[in-house]
Amino acid sequence: xxxxxxxxxxxxxxxxxxxxxxxxxxxxxxxxxxxxxxxxxxxxxxxxxxxxxxxxxxxxxxxxxxxxxxxxxxxxxxxxxxxxxxxxxxxxxxxxxxxxxxxxxxxxxxxxxxxxxxxxxxxxxxxxxxxxxxxxxxxxxxxxxxxxxxxxxxxxxxxxxxxxxx
Length: 166
Hints:
A hairpin with a 2-residue loop joins strand 8 (about 140-150) and strand 9 (about 150-155). By secondary structure, this protein is of the alpha+beta class. The radius of gyration is 21 Å and the shape is extended. The strands form two sheets. A seven-stranded antiparallel beta sheet has the order 1-9-8-2-7-6-5. A two-stranded antiparallel sheet has the order 3-4. It has two helices and nine strands.
């Protein structure tokens, strides 16, 4: 739509907060933030999914087993926060078909409530840059989940649109 003399701007949010209504941006504080991003599982470098198969006498596949042994989390204690890096699995499907995906999770816990800017500047961005440099490939945030004792909310990243304006 175009109106002569009127500037029209389309705003697309890059982040939506679900689960709680915040009156002001300054009201958004957490003492724990979990997040995941692409290629985190590769950077962790732990092979936690084990596969075995069974064949009958003729060599035909008789059965296939997949097991997951959760490795110990990587724990880092710093003055301002504690960082926990873990590996888990996410399953989906039904009794006939299952999808199993490794999921890396970074959880940052602070001693007091801090705002989103603190988490982004002190945890999310530096960790993602470190992993990206280590792997030699860019990484993209896939989800965030913030917590504090008074509320739980999910910070859902909005995927970029084809127009690239998100």
